[in-house]
Structure formats: C-alpha cells, structure tokens
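=== RUN LOG ===
request id: a7f3
mode: sequence -> structure
chains: 1
length: 174
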Amino acid sequence: FKAAPSNLKRHATVTVWDETRVKLRLPEDKKAGKDFIHANYARGPFTHKDYIMTQGPLPDTVADFWGMVVQEKVGLILMLCRCEEETKEGTKKSKSEQYWPPDSSAPLQFPSRHLTVTNEMWADVDDQELDGIQLRQTQLYLTRTAQPQLHRRPVTHLQMRNLPDMALPPSPQL
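=== RESULT ===
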C-alpha cells in the first residue's frame, strides 16, 4: 500500500498488502476521511480473516488501534514484545506505544472515538509451563459511549514479555 502516510507506520520497510489490509470504517473514520491502519488480515483455519497482524501502535495511532479492535470485534490481543527493548549497544528502543492502561487506576480515554479502555486485572502466568516465556495476561474492558448497545466489552490482552526479538521462540508449542 503505497499511499500510507509515513507517520502512521512504525517501520517503513514493513509493507501493508492492499488486498488484505484492514480498513478503518467506523463513523468517526469516515467523517475524518481516513481508513489507514498498519494492519493486515491473516488466513487461519476457518477464513481469510481469522487473525489480524499489526505493528505496535505509535503515539499518534493508539486511538486508531482501539478503533480497529472495536470495529473488528477483537476479543484477544497477543503482543509478542515489550514496549521497549534493550539494543545490543545498551540503549532502549521503542517497539510499541503502551496502548493499554498499566493498571486499574488510570483508564485510557479516546474522546474522538467515544471510547474508554480500562484494566481490571493482570496476572503473570507461570513461565515454567511456557518453556521460559514470561506471559502476562490482562483483562481489559472497552466502553463505547457512541454505541449504547455496546456498554462494556471484554478484551483479553496477552503479552509475551521476553520473546527473543527477531528470533524464534524456544519451543514450537508456543
């Protein structure tokens, strides 16, 4: 997809395929005249839209990310990295904006999308069962004030906190 604004892409070398890209279609997106998010549908065992793959949101695309989650009725988010990772040189590199509330005391609000994201619980899953992979599970809730019929919807967020960057996991079971 060549017309994607560069400020909406984390990595310029990672392309979005126009044939399978997710297009933002919520009323606020149509009103703003935008449909781009750096995300593609991925084929699964049932349909060609079983999964959505996306890069970690940028500060300016977090609201669009949650708009996509609402639009596509996503119930599970699997994050394969930390928000920041240390480079070989010892500096920090941003891999994703913190797009979910870190705890229950500070919900994220997106007035332009009439959306609030709250964090109701988190737990670190025993990493012994996952071949050393640290997995954090967070139960999030979306409240969309523009759609009263969607009062509150759960979204489970799983974050693999120490999956090797640019490498394979230690076990094929993951």
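=== NOTES ===
The chain has a mean pLDDT of 84.
The radius of gyration is 17 Å.
=== END ===
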